[in-house]
Specification:
Elements: H1 17-20, H2 26-40, H3 42-48, H4 59-71, H5 77-86, H6 88-94, H7 105-117, H8 120-129, H9 132-135, E1 142-151, E2 159-161, E3 196-198, E4 205-207, E5 216-226, E6 232-239, H10 244-254, E7 262-266, H11 273-281, E8 284-288, H12 301-304, H13 307-315, H14 320-328, H15 340-364
Parallel strand pairs: 1-7, 7-8
Antiparallel strand pairs: 1-5, 2-3, 4-5, 5-6
Helix pairs in contact: 2-15, 4-15, 8-15
Amino acid sequence: MRGGDDRTESLFSYLSCEARVPKDHPLRAIRAIVDEALEVLSPAFEALYAKTGRPSVAPEKLLRALLLQAFYTVRSERQLMEQLDYNLLFRWFVGLSMDAPVWDVTVFTKNRDRLLEGDIAAKFLAAVLGQPRVKALLSDAHFSVDGTLIEAWASMKSFVPKNPGSDPDSKGEGGGGGGRNAARDFRGEKRSNDTHASTSDPEARLYKKAPGQAAKLCYMGHLLMENRHGLVVDARVTQASGTAEREAAKAMLAARAGRRRRTLGGDKLYDTAEFVADLRAAKVTPHVAQNNAARRSAIDGRTTRHPGYALSQTKRKRIEEPFGWIKTVGGLRKTRHRGRALVEWLFTLSSAACNLVRLPKLLRAPA
């Protein structure tokens, strides 16, 4: 028989969020890894807060909430707080009981900025990778590197001369008057990062990665990936430039100094005499793709004759997978934040989230 459409609201509930989450839910394995990493970070959290005063949002809960934002592509902190209010799965993962109040969005973002000061995102990524069972998955000798553009949260109309008197047609973001979103004609106007800057995000740079593409205000994100399982081991964000990828690659490799000789895979952009020489001086074998277009490649037969070179060229293409996840699921194709430091913080946390999605399956796989 047909059941009745009656509301059966009870006055009291004896169920917890723990009871509502299935035993085989993917977030259970992820939370175990996250909690272990957060325990390692406890001293770093302690150093960020005063010993007296009113208790703030627990940093562990705040970081778990930000990870959920990356996992489920929640587009804003305001929407994240809304979902925390009614989503029992989110409450369980963060560590809130069913009747615990949810934070105000302004309080949440203010406390997030405190974690930015302590560089917690990079420490969290290192804490996840430093767990013994995760460390056993990583290669310490073979890496790949690449960079991608992250579109800045700034309009092209905000890209105006640094000296306002040099261009009478440019008046703030609107340009030419008529309101803040007035039409603006850029035809015939020469714009460059030397003479212009964005009023919305001064650290963003006008850049295009390949000929024929439109130049955009953006940052450049960089990843260093180990080749055994394709896990991200370092993430950086720099201002966009023609040399930023090579400079970031050298900085990330220097941060992972070791005694063993290492290899580094990369695309044709890394095939320059200076970069290859710097890698060899640092005892790193450059397994970068040869660029023979109208010039001589810096990679010769001493490198390409070895089977490891072809293997690195195959493995390095996997770095596009975390880039794709970070920009689509992680929501960083166009950042919603301004300033290189904050963009880098969120880019690093999204890289850690990308690793966390893959780790439970890798840890279950037979050795």
